Amino acid sequence: MKTIKFNLNIEAADCYLYSGHLFLILNDGSIGCLNLNKIYHNLYVQYPEYVDFFRLIFQRNDYYKNQQGDYFFKIPELKSSFDKLWRKVSNTLNFEYFINNELIILAKIPESDLPVLDIKIYGMKIFIATIKGVYSMKLSYNSKYEFQKDKKIKKYFDAKSISLNAKCGALAVSTNMDGLFYGSINDETILQIKEKEVSTKSIRTSWVGYDIINYESNSSFEFLENEIEIRKQENEHSFYDEKKEKNLISNFGKNKITNELLIKNLASEDKEIKYAFNSSKKSFLITDKGKFYTSNFIVENDYDYFLDSLGIKSEEKVLAKEIRISRTSFELPLVKNKKMLKPLSSHIIENGCVLEFIDKIVLFKNNEAEIIDTDPSIILRTYPGSLRYKNILSVSKEDKITIHAIYPF
User: Fold this and answer.
1) Same structural domain for residues 252 and 132?
2) 3-class secondary structure for the chain?
3) Over the stretch 93-151, which tens digit does the pLDDT of each residue have?
């Protein structure tokens, strides 16, 4: 099923959707913010017959899976009507919005620290990775539900940082050859990053439940087991976009399981991995032979397995975790030209993923592949941890941002 998309006309280096707002990193390092209702108001005026439909697909993805939505979409006739409307709008929508002088400028990254390489917004705090380190600041609303402007942003880390990930009070900072670092997030100091690296190399990370996969390269990865504890007090979060987190990561990277052990169950021809990434439950592998596989993570508790690799003596009978990748469940042909096989980036959505290649963006969902964008892009973002934007893809381009609503079923 095609995506439903529209364009926002502005020159920006990156964007991020959070708590009903569009956050932008402008080319001069300014951090801008715009209430999404201003954009959607114009969309609704142009297409008044689709107002409720647009609210569902662009603003309230949580309605797909709540109790009412579950009842609604189980009725075949209603589901069929929804699908018919989706096809119609995906072929007819023609909307663009020009962002002019309406941005609220929250803060600015020093020009000497540009470019910005990644953004993460979590727990009402924004984290920004640059070639000189990691910046962060708290976000707060005024009485008009607008984020307060002209705030001070502080640097918390001094090494080139290329990728960020946050969950359960922890921030993972990937710095490529300098390694993977871990920071604890709190309301007082905002961020405290440990001086000692957790792993010696890291280009990106991705969560598997409360644990995390560290990618040392696009084809090599390790499983890091984290220790958690129950929070003593409620975490700060956006009521509009995040669930309360009951758990807190207290020991990051407690145990490591190597790439070789994770893929030991795969056939030998499937172990020649060219590119790998994962969601919270699945591993996605692209092999040298041009095959695209998806596999399940199997997480089991066992007293004997991996004890040697973890340095635990068997007589101590300490519970260790067994992690492995199951046999692949299906495969897909990817691209005809093997030279174009390796993606530039990968992004998780519900029941699938989005891959960025040099000449196209491809959506993989329900065992099908579809090209959804062919414009040159700068940054792609999906929002799998969001309440309201689980089925949204944002694509930052040279002079515009394209917002894609992805079919939810």
Assistant:
1) yes
2) CCCEEEEEECCCCEEEEECCEEEEECCCCEEEEEEHHHHHHHHHHHCHHHHHHHHHHHHCHHHHCCHHHHHHHCCHHHHHHHHHHHHHHHHHCCCEEECCCCCEEEEECCHHHCCEEEEEEECCEEEEEECCEEEEEECCECCCCCECCCCCCEEEECCCCCEEEEECCEEEEECECCCEEEEEEECCCEEEECCCCCECCECEEEEECCEEEEECCCCCEEEEEEEEEECCCCCCCCCCCCCCCCEEEEEEEEEEECHHHHCCCCCHHHHCEEEEEECCCEEEEEECCCEEEEEEEEEEEECCCCCCCCCCCHHHCCCEEEEEECCCCEEEECCCCHHHCCCCEEEEECCEEEEECCCCEEEEECCEEEEEECCCCCEEEECCCCCCCCCEEEEECCCEEEEEECCCC
3) 999 999 988 999 999 999 999 999 999 999 999 999 999 999 999 998 776 667 777 67
